[in-house]
């Protein structure tokens, strides 16, 4: 891993929040949180590898900080769960019945680890996504006590708790990056 890493993302939690939490959780990590402002986006966009942010890779960081599964089978389960979570929630503005079905499925998983018996990177991703959904509909996880307990566990992890206290999530705002 590079001696110092910079996370480039907008001044919102979004896709970068799980990355920020992993860096905050990892002990001794030297990193910078670069918040891209709307009026900076055009110049920053040209410098990114794919014209978007974030461009740090969660799985790579998980490997660096021992947040992968215990074996290849657990890694596959973590990847499947992460793809399932990210692929259906980041671009969904409305909590639908499909999302509630997914919450029921995830509620059956181990509340602290989701996969296996150790902390993996997917717990950060799930909690960030749940936070976003709960912000839109407060009682969403009420029928899912294991997910509620899972979120509380992740929020209280050393590093994550410190990060959340330092950078509380603000009210979401409309932020159209394509608007000049």
UniProtKB/TrEMBL annotation:
Gene3D superfamilies: 1.20.1050.10, Glutaredoxin. GO terms for biological process: glutathione metabolic process. Coiled coil: none annotated. Residues 3-69 form the GST N-terminal domain. Residues 55-176 form the GST C-terminal domain. This is GST N-terminal domain-containing protein. The gene is RvY_08362-1. One of its GO terms (molecular function) is glutathione transferase activity. It comes from the Eukaryota. InterPro entries: Glutathione-S-Trfase_C-like, Glutathione-S-Trfase_C_sf, Glutathione_S-Trfase_N, GST_C, GST_superfamily, Thioredoxin-like_sf. CDD domains: GST_N_Sigma_like (cd03039).
